[in-house]
Amino acid sequence: MPEDARPYPSASPLNGKDLSQLLTTAHQLCESRGTRLTPIRRKVLEILLREQRSLKAYELLDLIRAIQPGAAPPTVYRALDFLVEQHLVHRLDAINAWAACMDAAGNHHDILVVCTRCGAVAELSDPALSRQLAERVAQSGFRLVSSETELRAECSTCGKTQDVCSNSSAVL
To answer: Each residue of 55-68: pLDDT tens digit?
Structure first.
């Protein structure tokens, strides 16, 4: 990994921060931008931070309904849209899910590595690689419309627990 590439989160839970500290930072960022972190938005962010993995919208809805039984899909989608706009959450097109940004007040994460088995996400910042990619895209006659690149991968935990049957060609 290049010297300026930084993976997030670190091995420690919540990137070395406690949940209340991350939520306070999110609240302060919203206030400084003239927006509000409403209770439902805060709860969606809290769930994503606590889970430390990506979640699909209906998984989030189920967790919200445990607290707010009347919650409906548009409520969760609106909260997610807001959190993405505020760069507090990443939208993961590769797996149709969302993950909390573990360093919202810090570096921009231009590369997201997504485990397609468990939903774990690593946030990477590699400006040199991103510039090189943008240049190559421009050389091919295109213009990047998003600054985030998603890489589908398998995390080390899932790699260790790979199903033995998936590598065999046994005939029943």
So the answer is: 999 999 999 999 99
